[in-house]
Amino acid sequence: MGLYIYLKVLHVIAATMFFGTGLGSAFYKLRADLSGKTEDIVFAQKNIVLADWLFTVPSGVVLPVTGLWMAELAGFPIASGWMFWGLILYGVAGACWLPAAVLQIRMRDEAIRAFAERRPLAGRYVTWSRIWLLLGIPAFAAAVITIFLMVAKAVPW
Q1: Coil, helix or strand for 123?
Q2: pLDDT tens-digit series, residues 99-132
Q3: Segment 50-102, tens digit of pLDDT
Q4: Chain Cα centroid distance, residue 154
Q5: Quick one: which of 100, 97, 77 has its CA closest to 143?
Q6: DSSP alpha helix (H) spans, the chain
Q7: What is the pTM (predicted TM-score) of this model?
Q8: Gap between the Cα atoms of 140 and 97, Å rounded
Q9: Helices 38-51 and 81-116: crossing angle, nearest 10°?
Q10: Exposed, middle or buried, 111 (CB in 10 Å: 0-12/13-18/19+)?
C-alpha cells in the first residue's frame, strides 16, 4: 500500500473526530443546559473544553495537512472546484469554531462560579450559549458540505 492510502485513512479518522466531537459536544451541552442543573452544566462544559483540546484541535490540524498532501500526491489542483470549495468551507467551520471555543471556556468558567456560589446560570451564560449555538449552525453545515465534496470530488452547483 502506498502513502496515499495511509494518508487517506488518517484523513478519514481526523474528519470523523472533527465532526463527531462537534456533534457530541452540541448534544451534551444542550442536554445539560436543558436539565437546568448547574452541576450537570459544569460537567458538560468541562468535558466539552477538554474534548476540543484532545480531539478537535489535533484533528483540525491533521485534516488540512493530510488533505493537501493527498491532493499533491494525486495531482488534484487545489484550485479545482471541489478542492477550492472544500478549503473555503473548512475555513468557514474554523472561523466559527474559534469564537465558539472561546465561548466554551467562558461558559465553563461561569458555570463553575455559579455552582460554587450556589446560584442559577443566567444572563451572560444564556447569551453566550445562544451565540455558541448560532456559530454551530454554519460550522455544522460547512462540515457536512465539505464531507460531501471530499467524497464526491465534484461540486454540485
Answers
A1: coil
A2: 999 999 999 999 999 999 999 998 999 999 999 9
A3: 999 999 999 999 999 999 999 999 998 888 889 999 999 999 999 999 999 99
A4: 23
A5: 97
A6: 3-35, 38-51, 57-74, 81-116, 124-152
A7: 0.89
A8: 10
A9: 140
A10: buried
